[in-house]
Design goal:
mainly alpha; 3 strands; rod-shaped; single chain; 295 residues; three-stranded antiparallel β-sheet
Length: 295
């Protein structure tokens, strides 16, 4: 007879007297073990689908991160290139202001000379005493065609008459357009008439100003200084404008993961039900851990 306190042949210690489990406890323990084994099998069987789904999620995040970084870098390069072009253009315009001042003074002087010459020619009236061969009758005929001063015509030429009859006649070209022919004014009277106008032009050009007055020069200098101040202000604001463009939403401000490692390689495609299987896999992990806890 074997004593209840000694070890059995199998080496396992029997339950102490009065502490043997009941049949219901044995069945519950058996069910727990069976459920744990089933959960472990499901866990091992669906682990691959879960890993594929998780890898696909990680690769999707890495791809989005790479696209965001690329778009952000491209936007910054575009902003820097625009800033460089603007600054170069402003510097060129600033460097050309001295030459612009000279050119503006020349243009202003040309305008003053042209206005002075036009006023002088407009005040030089045609009279019979000033042109050899032109009497009072021809002076009235010229006035009837709008030619009263040296400013009313610019040249003469030979051509066919307006009615197409006869030979060539002398045409007087008016300053405001058009040409006219005055009966009685041919080559012998046309040359003195043109010489009278050329002499009036020479006198007007000689009397016209050859340099700007001090107040005109000062006005041109003020215009150039104002332009220089405006360009310098734009050149100073160019970096601030670029920084403001970087901060705008359209500049694609980098997300928090901008310094993360590059994207991983694309995995094999997971089964269509990988998402559902991954959820069940997590549940099986919870069941397995719960059932395998020591009692």
């Amino acid at each position: 007879m074997t004593d209840s306190t000694t070890s059995t042949q199998s080496g396992t210690a029997p339950f102490p007297p009065g502490s043997a489990p009941s049949p219901s406890e044995v069945r519950a323990e058996r069910r727990r073990l069976i459920e744990s084994i089933r959960a472990l099998r499901r866990l091992l069987g669906k682990r691959r689908a879960f890993e594929l789904a998780d890898q696909r999620r990680l690769n999707g995040e890495a791809r989005d991160r790479y696209r965001s970084e690329t778009a952000h870098d491209k936007s910054l390069r575009r902003i820097d290139a625009r800033r460089s072009r603007q600054e170069s253009a402003l510097i060129r315009r600033l460097d050309g202001l001295d030459g612009k001042r000279e050119s503006q003074e020349k243009r202003a002087l040309a305008v003053l000379r042209r206005e002075s010459i036009e006023r002088a020619l407009g005040s030089t009236y045609l009279t019979a005493a000033q042109v050899n061969g032109i009497g009072d009758g021809l002076v009235r005929d010229l006035a009837a065609q709008g030619i009263r001063t040296a400013a009313d015509f610019k040249r003469v030429s030979w051509g066919k008459a307006a009615n197409g009859k006869g030979g060539e006649v002398l045409h007087i070209h008016r300053t405001r357009g058009g040409k006219v022919h005055i009966n009685g004014i041919g080559e012998h009277r046309g040359r003195p008439l043109l010489a009278w106008r050329d002499a009036a032009v020479d006198r007007a050009e000689a009397r016209a100003p050859h340099q700007l007055a001090p107040d005109e020069q000062h006005r041109v200098a003020e215009i150039i200084d104002a332009e220089r101040t405006r360009l310098q202000a734009q050149l100073t604001e160019a970096p601030k404008v670029a920084e403001a463009a970087r901060a705008r939403p359209g500049a694609r401000v980098p997300p928090p993961w901008v310094n993360s490692p590059p994207p991983m390689s694309r995995p094999q495609s997971a089964p269509p039900n990988a998402g559902r299987n991954s959820t069940r896999w997590v549940n099986d992990c919870s069941t397995f851990r719960h059932n395998c806890r020591p009692t």
